[in-house]
Design goal:
The complex is a heterodimer of chains A (285) and B (298). Chain A is mainly α and 285 residues long. Helices cover 72% and strands 0% of the residues of chain A. Classes of the chains: A mainly alpha (285), B mainly alpha (298).
């Protein structure tokens, strides 16, 4: 005999936690974005925060910074991850398990730790990376001190942190490709490259699309790494949307404006997801 | 989840791409290329960890030495002591442990119970509640930070363990994953227990949880990792040094302009990394499947 109350008892803890600490903040954030700070109260002011956002050059700077870093980091680490997955999946590679484990290590390291370690490695005057570069005659690369280089550095740290993670996803997908497909391609005279192009890539298509979405959505929320590596600098060169949100919410204590930034982030994530789906479904048929 | 396929690859399943290259052209050229790529990747992946370890054992004056030190020194204990004098770092370590363990237990338990109900019970409101949960997965956690802060500030709970533990950003994803897994628990098992007069809660505890344990453990690892590394919310919610978690403590130290104690900073990084590594090597297979849970859809 089933108790009618049982399922409600089972979902109660989750629903309470979710309602109080996820659903309520999501709704309140939306409401806040239509309010404005006035002393200690927040009167409704319609779209004022959003019109202010559209006229705020720093907001657009942060959008552009985030996009630039994403465009540098995402393709790089996804291509690297795919290359490593295919390499690791080759029949003759020994110690596959060990290699996979080692390459996954960056993914279990806290983003803050990664950023702290790299901030020391990237030190212009004394950092190890410039010491090594010096051996090859490249001296004093301003890794964290010059706008473009600072973005490159943040992107490099992202590549280091996420390549192994994406590689594991690709490896899992590679192993679901039926071997018969390769056999058939080989019979048709396809070499290694053509097998990769005409069997591996099409078969991985859903996975690749998924990792692209994952990586773009992740990077659109980029915060920890630039916060520690560059504090958004030099100037505002590495200030991301999430950092702009934090700055307005917790340095200027402008909760309504920060909420409008938050909802523009929600919109960006939604648009990215939608676009990726569109691009992904095109050409499949 | 695909953990099984990764580990248990038989020769038949292995993609014969490279093997084919080997047979068609000269055997060694592509294999050398593949090995060079893999070795380079391993070096780049591991080196920062090794360098962090070496730096953590050196006096700060030696961290930037030219040429760099490549063997560990004997300064680790002093670095940790110095670090703890600058900021209550041992306390931050304990805070991280408390928050990660309690947050994981809370989130995983709530997700498992809810996932079970969504998978095995029909009840009014099920579809609607599940749809709301699913939609919220699309909202980035950062969108909730400002109202969360206001809310905890209103009830006077800022700078408390409740504030660090209760918000569980992975809960909706966890419920979703648990629902998928709980569907696989055989109905016969649950019905048999009911016929035997077993209470609903006992059935969940004694039958469902043990059967679904691998998936629950994988979710636990995912949640533990997220808690251990979480930065933005603790940065906002913890206001005094004695409530800092490890990432907040490290970022605060690294952000101090007058900072010169690089050995201490790296020792702090080591302390934040080693527990994760231990858990990782102890639970490796489950760990990878846990962290990529929800990411691998095959």
């Amino acid at each position: 005999v089933r108790s009618r109350a049982a399922p409600y008892a089972f979902i109660a803890p989750a629903v309470l936690l979710f309602g109080a600490f996820t659903a309520y903040p999501i709704v309140r954030s939306l409401l806040l974005s239509f309010q404005a700070r006035s002393g200690t109260s927040y009167p409704f002011t319609g779209l004022s925060n959003y019109t202010r956002l559209l006229e705020d050059p720093e907001f657009f700077r942060s959008l552009l910074n985030t996009a630039e870093i994403a465009l540098m980091a995402s393709p790089t680490h996804l291509v690297l991850a795919l290359a490593l997955a295919v390499a690791l999946n080759a029949g003759f590679v020994r110690l596959r398990g060990v290699l996979r484990t080692v390459l996954f290590l960056p993914a279990i390291t806290s983003l803050v730790v990664v950023a702290v370690v790299f901030s020391i490695l990237f030190n212009t005057g004394f950092g190890l990376i410039n010491q090594v570069a010096g051996v090859f005659g490249i001296s004093n690369v301003p890794w964290l001190d010059e706008p473009l280089w600072a973005k490159v550095s943040v992107a490099l740290v992202l590549v280091w942190r996420w390549t192994g993670y994406m590689m594991v996803i690709y490896l899992a997908a590679l192993q679901t490709i039926p071997r018969e497909l390769y056999d058939a391609a080989a019979v048709d005279g396809a070499g290694a490259w053509n097998q990769f192009r005409h069997v591996t890539l099409p078969q991985l298509r859903p996975t690749i699309l998924f990792t692209v979405i994952l990586s773009l959505i992740g990077t659109s929320q980029l915060f920890d790494e630039p916060f520690v590596l560059t504090r958004g600098g030099p100037g505002n060169a590495t200030e991301t949307v999430a950092m702009f949100l934090y700055k307005n919410g917790f340095e200027f204590f402008d909760a309504p404006y920060a909420s409008a930034v938050a909802y523009s982030l929600v919109l960006i994530v939604a648009v990215l997801t939608f676009l990726s789906m569109r691009v992904g479904s095109r050409g499949v048929a | 989840m695909a953990e099984a396929t990764i580990e248990q690859t038989s020769d038949r399943q292995r993609m014969p791409l490279a093997a084919r290259i080997g047979r068609r052209t000269s055997a060694w050229a592509p294999s050398i290329g593949v090995h060079v790529l893999l070795i380079l990747a391993v070096v780049v992946s591991v080196f920062p960890f090794y360098w962090m370890f070496v730096g953590a054992t050196l006096p700060s004056s030696e961290v930037f030495r030219v040429p760099p030190r490549i063997l560990p020194g004997s300064h680790l204990a002093e670095n940790i002591r110095g670090l703890n004098d600058t900021l209550p770092f041992i306390r931050a370590f304990l805070n991280s442990c408390v928050v990660a363990v309690a947050g994981t237990a809370l989130g995983t338990g709530a997700a498992a119970a809810a996932g079970y109900a969504f998978a095995k019970f029909a009840f009014p409101g099920r579809e609607l509640i599940f749809f709301v949960l699913l939609m919220s997965v699309m909202v980035p956690a950062q969108a909730t930070i400002v109202p969360l802060f206001l809310m905890f500030s209103d009830i006077g709970w800022l700078n408390t363990y409740q504030a660090l533990i209760l918000p569980s950003p992975l809960l909706p994803l966890g419920i979703f994953l648990m629902r998928q897994q709980m569907k696989a628990v055989p109905d016969e098992l649950i019905d048999a227990a009911r016929v035997d007069g077993c209470g609903e809660f006992r059935i969940f505890l004694k039958i469902v949880l043990p059967v679904a344990w691998p998936a629950v453990a994988a979710l636990g690892i995912l949640m533990f990792t997220q808690r251990w590394m979480d930065f933005l919310w603790p940065l906002v919610a913890a206001q005094t040094e004695d409530m800092y978690t490890l990432p907040v403590a490290l970022a605060t130290l690294a952000g101090r302009r007058e900072l010169t104690d690089y050995g201490g900073l790296l020792a702090g990084c080591l302390i934040a990394t080693v527990p994760m590594m231990i858990v990782f090597f102890a639970l490796q297979r489950r760990f990878v499947s846990g962290l990529t849970a929800g990411a691998v859809k095959q």
